Amino acid sequence: MAAFRAGIVLFAFLAVSLRALAGDPDITADFITPPGVTPDGNFFTFRGLNRVISGGPSGVPFKRTKLTQDEFPALAGQSVGLAVLQFAPSPGGVSPPHTHPRSAELLIVIQGVLNVGFVDSANKLFSQTLYAGDAFVFPKGLVHFQVNGDSKYPAVAITAFGSSNAGTISLPKTIFGSKIANSVLAESFKTDAVTVGKLVSAISG
């Protein structure tokens, strides 16, 4: 429990640090409220993470629980967001290669072991093995991944963003699930249309 509390304190510090590099537009009011809403303490409170802050995902190999302005309207204009990532034991506990177009991502491991990495614009891979209490930054817009490094136990991480709507572009889903012609994908990946078709079917299924 002490380690968990220390992790949350560190996460809070990291979230504030990210906000200093935020990419959201500045607002001209203290905060933004939806039409017809009279804000009180409840408006600035979110209680939906208590069930995902520890333990592995239920029934799926990987689960991302977002906390953006869509889930928590009080974040609108505040240039901060987060997500809780839950990984089943490997193999299977993988957050596939993806990007966040509007923010860097700052990750802290709360439970378990994660193997993480990103690829820069020179196609160089930067990777690391992280343990509970370790933090790692994924620069804005770069392709990155996370995978559980343990075959027996789940892993949990919290990620902070310098945007209330960082966006997530999953490469497998975007490439093979967006109806790009199989012939284009086959030529791009130097393979055949049958192989591409299998990948498309797997992603679509």
Automatic annotation (TrEMBL):
Segment forming the signal sequence: 1-22
Species assigned in the record: Platanthera zijinensis
Record keyword Manganese present: yes
A molecular-function term among this protein's GO annotations: manganese ion binding
Residues holding Mn(2+): 98, 100, 105, 144
Superkingdom, taxonomy of origin: Eukaryota
Protein name: Germin-like protein
GO cellular component: apoplast
Binding site for oxalate: 100, 105
Pfam families xref list: Cupin_1
SMART domains: Cupin_1
Major subcellular location class: secreted
Key word Secreted present: yes
SUPFAM superfamilies membership: RmlC-like cupins (SSF51182)
Localization of this protein: Secreted, Extracellular space, Apoplast
Span of domain Cupin type-1: 62-197
InterPro entries hit by this protein: Cupin_1 (IPR006045), Germin (IPR001929), Germin_Mn-BS (IPR019780), RmlC-like_jellyroll (IPR014710), RmlC_Cupin_sf (IPR011051)
Swiss-Prot/TrEMBL keywords: Apoplast, Disulfide bond, Manganese, Metal-binding, Secreted, Signal
UniProt family annotation: Belongs to the germin family.
PANTHER family reported for this sequence: GERMIN-LIKE PROTEIN SUBFAMILY 3 MEMBER 3 (PTHR31238)
CDD domains documented for this protein: cupin_OxOx
